[in-house]
Specification:
It is globular and about 40 Å long. It has three helices and six strands, in the order αββαβαβββ. The protein has a single domain, classed as Rossmann fold (3-Layer(aba) Sandwich), CATH 3.40.50.2020. It is α+β, with helices and mostly antiparallel strands and about 110 residues long. Strands 3-4-6-5 form a four-stranded mixed sheet, with helices on one face.
Length: about 110
């Protein structure tokens, strides 16, 4: 399924060594989207859960944009909560934040509490 998903994406640009791809065509074909979600979920189950001390996933964190499209579906499959993470000032309600390094610089992100 990896090849099918890759065949449905197109490279938009590259910035500081990071490739930006258009993933929206994945959503046009339900079988390709299903295959992608199944492969991602399988990877989490076979690699992450088997190596975690409590053998379960409590929360799937989805980073702005792509994470909002894929994260809730994966969380649902795993029986886990979903937490959206966005740039400061974009989420309503009380939030906490943290900085982290990305390929192109430091980013401040927040999530609701």
């Amino acid at each position: 399924m990896h090849c099918e998903a890759s065949a449905n994406c197109s490279l938009l640009s590259t910035f500081q060594g990071v490739a930006f791809c258009d993933i929206f065509p994945l959503f046009r074909d339900p079988l390709v989207f299903e295959g992608l979600i199944t492969q991602l979920t399988h990877h989490i189950i076979s690699d992450t859960i088997t190596n975690s001390p409590n053998k379960k996933i409590d929360v799937i964190v989805g980073l702005d944009a792509r994470g909002f499209l894929l994260g809730p579906v994966i969380a649902l499959r795993l029986g886990a909560a979903f937490v959206p993470v966005r740039k400061r000032g974009k989420l309503p309600g009380e939030c906490v934040g943290a900085t982290f390094e990305k390929e192109y610089g430091t980013v401040w992100s927040v999530f609701q509490i």
